[in-house]
């Protein structure tokens, strides 16, 4: 009978329904989790590594290293991480096209394994150069994973969950930051003897990914559109969707593949040459720059002094810092839950508007903290509120743009462009922040406030909403926006056709 109730799902179907969740976890634990983890664990052993550098130099030359040179070596150890990330971002596109999304993440763990070995034996070998090389390698790994993981998850998720699934990259980044802060406590691995193990502990999430990700499917879009393997795509979709009928989704993928047929993968610099990609590239550059220049990373650098001004004892500051990471994790989870209800544009606008408001209050609190007794506590509240606002909006939504705004042929190049932009900005902000802080003092957040306002305005006026739309529908809408007068632009029939298939 047609109206007869369907039988309950069996164990096999229920297991298949969990494959997407397992894919998210396996990709995240060795992907953006590593980025957040390696970003935060370097803070705890700062003094121990500087002492190790001085002792190593004394053992080699018989005299200590001057303080300014110790600081220079330490700065290099820290700065090589974003430099490695820049190299990794450049490597991500060719890897994703040549090996596929899943295999790229697996091969990427080779950098982590090599770095963990260098970290683990650096003190025994008496070589701070091993720390430098290790930081460069984990940076390369982070650069690859920050580009490939959102691409992999965005292409594997159904359109009604694509935003939430892609947002898990931000959740795992925040989880990595918090985990690194906890593991780096003096009571755990942040002590003077255990710091090589702390740095080498990045091997653990890498090993978890190597053990789990090979059992999970490749991106269905990559299998069909890039490799032309319809049966492998169907099998991957059936595993990812469980009991759901995949015929309609497969047909949609085939239409998208037909639109891309005969097209070569775009090179990063070519994205800036095509009028048909103008809105996408502008959104990527403007909002990607806004995310890195909005001041969130500097809040972490300023948090310790703010907590001390508020009366938090010096030995307890490390626990208060964990609270900042916990705020970002909480807000990323909230954003992951609400993004498919509120949409991308509203979260970006709301996040930047809230950040601008809190930056204004934070500036006032810093200026008045010596004259009004309650201002230090208000400054502490602003630190947490600013991080929460960043996590709800810009932190995760910005990372989705390269996946959703570009078609299959331009997506790897878009992630390369986004990654290069992000890591370059991260390096420049880290380099210039001490000088900006010294020059502007309590008015440090005025430039960041301006960036937040500009980000909110751009998101509200120029960013198209992509919630609940297929990649094909998004491409058609963006084509209309890039060619507002149809007579001046060709009808959309897919990306530009060229003969080569190389990035």
Automatic annotation (TrEMBL):
The keyword Transmembrane helix applies. It is found in: Membrane. Residues 24-467 form the Major facilitator superfamily (MFS) profile domain. Keywords: Membrane, Transmembrane, Transmembrane helix, Transport. One of its GO terms (molecular function) is D-glucose transmembrane transporter activity. Its main location: membrane. GO terms for cellular component: plasma membrane. The keyword Membrane applies. It is a multi-pass membrane protein. InterPro entries: GLUT, MFS_dom, MFS_sugar_transport-like, MFS_trans_sf, Sugar/inositol_transpt, Sugar_transporter_CS. Belongs to the major facilitator superfamily. Sugar transporter (TC 2.A.1.1) family. This is Solute carrier family 2 member 11. It comes from Prolemur simus (Greater bamboo lemur). The gene is SLC2A11.
């Amino acid at each position: 009978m047609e109206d007869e109730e369907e039988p309950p799902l069996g164990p096999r179907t229920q297991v298949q329904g969990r494959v997407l969740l397992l894919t998210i976890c396996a990709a995240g634990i060795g992907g953006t989790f590593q980025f957040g983890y390696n970003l935060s664990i370097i803070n705890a052993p700062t003094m121990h590594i500087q002492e190790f550098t001085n002792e190593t130099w004394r053992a080699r030359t018989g005299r200590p290293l001057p303080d300014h040179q110790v600081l220079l070596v330490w700065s290099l150890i820290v700065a090589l991480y974003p430099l490695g990330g820049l190299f990794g971002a450049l490597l991500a596109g060719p890897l994703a096209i040549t090996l596929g999304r899943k295999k790229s993440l697996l091969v990427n763990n080779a950098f982590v394994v090599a770095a963990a070995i260098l970290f683990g034996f650096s003190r025994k070998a008496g070589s701070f150069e091993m720390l430098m090389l290790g930081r460069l390698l984990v940076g390369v790994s982070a650069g690859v994973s920050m580009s490939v993981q959102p691409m992999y998850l965005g292409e594997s998720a159904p359109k009604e969950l694509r935003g939430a699934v892609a947002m898990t990259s931000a959740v795992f980044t925040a989880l990595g930051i918090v985990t690194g802060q906890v593991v780096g406590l003096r009571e755990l691995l942040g002590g003077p003897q255990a710091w090589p193990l702390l740095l080498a502990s990045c091997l653990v999430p890498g090993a978890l990914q190597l053990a789990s990700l090979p059992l999970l499917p490749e991106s269905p879009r990559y299998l069909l559109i890039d490799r032309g393997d319809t049966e492998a795509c169907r099998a991957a979709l059936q595993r990812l969707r469980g009991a759901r009928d995949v015929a309609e989704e497969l047909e949609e993928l085939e239409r998208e593949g037909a639109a891309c047929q005969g097209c070569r993968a775009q090179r990063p610099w070519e994205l800036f040459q095509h009028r048909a990609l103008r809105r996408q590239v502008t959104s990527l550059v403007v909002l990607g720059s806004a995310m890195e220049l909005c001041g969130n990373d500097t809040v972490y650098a300023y948090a310790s002094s703010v907590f001390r001004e508020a009366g938090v004892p010096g030995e307890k500051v490390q626990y208060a810092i964990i609270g900042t990471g916990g705020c970002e994790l909480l807000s990323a989870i909230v954003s992951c839950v609400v993004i498919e209800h509120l949409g991308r544009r509203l979260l970006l606008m709301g996040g930047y508007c809230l950040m601008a408001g809190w930056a204004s209050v934070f500036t006032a609190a810093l200026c008045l903290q010596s004259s009004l007794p309650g201002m230090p506590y208000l400054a502490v509240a602003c630190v947490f509120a600013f991080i929460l606002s960043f996590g709800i909006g810009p932190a995760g939504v910005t990372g989705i743009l390269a996946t959703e705004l570009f078609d299959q042929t331009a997506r790897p190049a878009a992630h390369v462009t986004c990654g290069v932009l992000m890591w370059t900005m991260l390096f420049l902000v880290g380099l210039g922040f001490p000088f900006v802080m010294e020059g502007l003092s309590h008015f440090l957040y005025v430039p960041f406030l301006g960036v937040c306002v500009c980000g909110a305005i751009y998101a509200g006026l120029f960013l198209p909403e992509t919630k609940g739309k297929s990649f094909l529908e998004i491409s058609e809408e963006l084509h209309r926006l890039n060619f507002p007068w149809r007579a001046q632009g060709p009808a959309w029939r897919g990306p530009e056709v060229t003969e080569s298939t190389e990035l």
